[in-house]
Design goal:
186 residues, alpha+beta, six-stranded mixed β-sheet, 42% helix
């Protein structure tokens, strides 16, 4: 019987080291899984922050776009100018540039609605003559003298831009006017 007890005792002492080794391996696996989960959560938090910032910038760019559309409708058909340096921020500056796919950053007007609303980020807009019926795009009805009289349909491209420290969002629309004002309804 004594021999049996010694065999059992020696087996227990030899197995105690294996249990410790298994516990350390499981602890290592759990630690690796926890670290990878923390990295994934941090990445998802950054992605979510960028999505939120992009949505905020889109809203601000749309505010600038609507401000530009409103000013375009208020002024009606007008002659374009080379730059907006001498034009009050609350007035319309219609640039004499050719429309392009890329958003121009040269001559923009600051978002300045009549109610005094402000934006968190840099928010600006600009307007151009949009191509329509004529080669230069001034009017869809380019009969002789009608452009000078303001007769016909005039299309303007309005662009709103919002910028933060590391992101930029732009949005574009068109406004169609005749001599009496806006002819398209939403």
């Amino acid at each position: 019987m004594r021999a049996n007890n010694q065999n059992t005792l020696s087996r227990r002492t030899s197995q105690q080291g294996v249990t410790l080794l298994l516990a350390l391996v499981f602890l290592l696996i759990i630690t690796v899984l926890a670290i990878s989960s923390m990295r994934e959560v941090a990445l998802e938090a950054r992605i979510t922050g960028n999505v939120v910032e992009n949505k905020r910038l889109m809203g601000e760019a749309e505010s600038a776009l609507r401000d530009g559309e409103r000013r375009t409708v208020e002024r009606g058909p007008q002659e374009p100018v080379a730059d907006c340096a001498d034009i009050d921020p609350k007035k319309l500056c219609l640039l004499a540039d050719d429309p392009t796919y890329a958003v121009s950053a040269a001559e923009m007007q600051t978002y300045s609605p009549n109610d005094g609303t402000t934006q968190k980020n840099s928010t600006q807009w600009y307007a151009l003559i949009a191509p329509a019926g004529d080669n230069l795009g001034q009017s869809e009805n380019p009969e002789y003298g009608n452009m000078m009289l303001g007769i016909g349909i005039f299309r303007y491209e309005v662009n709103g831009v919002a910028k933060s420290d590391n992101m930029k969002t732009a949005i574009r629309s068109t406004v169609a006017l005749n001599s009496k004002g806006r002819i398209e309804t939403e």
